[in-house]
Amino acid sequence: MAGSWASTRLAEGIANQLPNMSALILESVLTCPRCGFTKTETMPTDACQFYYECTNCKTLLRPNLGDCCVFCSFGSVKCPPVQEQRECCR
Ligand SMILES: [Zn+2]
């Protein structure tokens, strides 16, 4: 009787490394070009904000030519779609 057992052990070491989850910054500091007033605003992730009224001087801000939203023009951080480098509102 010749019995030889070959036991194979598979050691699976799967390192599940998630690709750096898109670290979107959702807060942007808007600076009014007219009075210099700054305010931290939370940006919507699914839409772009075209108009923004300065809480200080009540000026209605609109994006500069070529920018998609007020955050791109006056904010400290670009809007989420631009951060993700995907098509935004155009
Ligand atoms: Zn202002």
What does this protein look like?
This protein has a domain at 27-83. The chain is α+β, with helices and mostly antiparallel strands. Helix content is 10%, strand content 16%. It contains 2 helices and 4 strands; from the N terminus they run ββββαα. A two-stranded antiparallel ribbon has the order 1-2. The radius of gyration is 25 Å and the shape is elongated. Residues 11-18 have low confidence and may be disordered. Zinc ion (ZN) binds at residues 32, 34-35, 37, 54, 56-57, 59.
Q: Quick one: how many beta strands?
A: 4
Strand fraction equals: 15-25%
First and last CA, distance: 78 Å
Regions with little confidence, pLDDT below 50 for 5+ residues: 11-18
Give a concise summary.
The protein has 90 residues and is α+β, with helices and mostly antiparallel strands. It contains two helices and four strands. The site of zinc ion has 8 residues, from loops.
Index terms:
single chain, alpha+beta, two-stranded antiparallel ribbon, two-stranded antiparallel sheet, 4 strands, 10% helix, 16% strand, binds zinc ion
Summarize the SSE layout with pairings.
Layout lengths: L26 E5 L6 E5 L9 E2 L6 E2 L8 H5 L5 H4 L7
The site of zinc ion (ZN) has 8 residues, from loops.
